[in-house]
Amino acid sequence: MVAVTARTNRSKSDQDPADWMPPAPQAQCRYVGEWVSTKLRWRLTADDRELEALKVYAEGPCEDTIVRYAPAA
Which DSSP string do the residues of 5-69 spell out, in sequence order? Predict the structure, then answer.
């Protein structure tokens, strides 16, 4: 869990990384890593737009981000 302002939380709403990223550039790779970790842990699907957005970050500014997760039991 990451503490954010109410304004940031409202701006995100229920959008995925294709439609919303944290406004602070230094928080974006952490957000992407946690998003991917959650998807993997719970075996959740991602639509094409979401996958493309994640790919842009994975091949760009977040290429050194390590994603760790434990599969849900």
Answer: -HHHHHHHTT--TTT---SSHHHHHHHHHHHHHHHHHTT----HHHHHHHHHHHTTTTTTPPP--
